Amino acid sequence: RGGAELLFDDVKKHQVTLPCQPEPWDIRNLLKWIKQNLLKERPELFIQGDTVRPGILVLINDADWELMGELDYKLQDQDSVVFISTLHGG
């Protein structure tokens, strides 16, 4: 306990099927969808503007999202996106 899962009603892992849309899903749109559909409380602790807050590491298929294009990465079927909070209380 104590990670970002607290913002998601203590659910650590979500397997989601995103709705069809004309344009391919990218991380930017995924974050909007997560905010609307999965975040249960205090979205400001997870989202800042149209991206994740500083202190949240994003991995796409076990690789740092900075290597994958960050918000512009186009999601593929069966991709794994992991959000890890690197911040903790003192």
From TrEMBL:
One of its GO terms (cellular component) is cytosol. It is found in: Cytoplasm. GO terms for molecular function: sulfur carrier activity. GO terms for biological process: protein urmylation; tRNA thio-modification; tRNA wobble uridine modification. Keywords: Cytoplasm, Isopeptide bond, tRNA processing, Ubl conjugation pathway. It holds the Pfam family Urm1. There is a cross-link at G90 (Glycyl lysine isopeptide (Gly-Lys) (interchain with K-? in acceptor proteins)). C-terminal thiocarboxylation occurs in 2 steps, it is first acyl-adenylated (-COAMP) via the hesA/moeB/thiF part of MOCS3, then thiocarboxylated (-COSH) via the rhodanese domain of MOCS3. SUPFAM superfamilies: MoaD/ThiS. CDD domains: Ubl_Urm1. The modification 1-thioglycine is found at G90. Pathway: tRNA modification; 5-methoxycarbonylmethyl-2-thiouridine-tRNA biosynthesis. InterPro entries: Beta-grasp_dom_sf, Mopterin_synth/thiamin_S_b, Urm1. Acts as a sulfur carrier required for 2-thiolation of mcm(5)S(2)U at tRNA wobble positions of cytosolic tRNA(Lys), tRNA(Glu) and tRNA(Gln). Serves as sulfur donor in tRNA 2-thiolation reaction by being thiocarboxylated (-COSH) at its C-terminus by MOCS3. The sulfur is then transferred to tRNA to form 2-thiolation of mcm(5)S(2)U. Also acts as a ubiquitin-like protein (UBL) that is covalently conjugated via an isopeptide bond to lysine residues of target proteins. Belongs to the URM1 family. This is Ubiquitin-related modifier 1. It comes from Terrapene triunguis. The lineage of its organism: Eukaryota, Metazoa, Chordata, Craniata, Vertebrata.
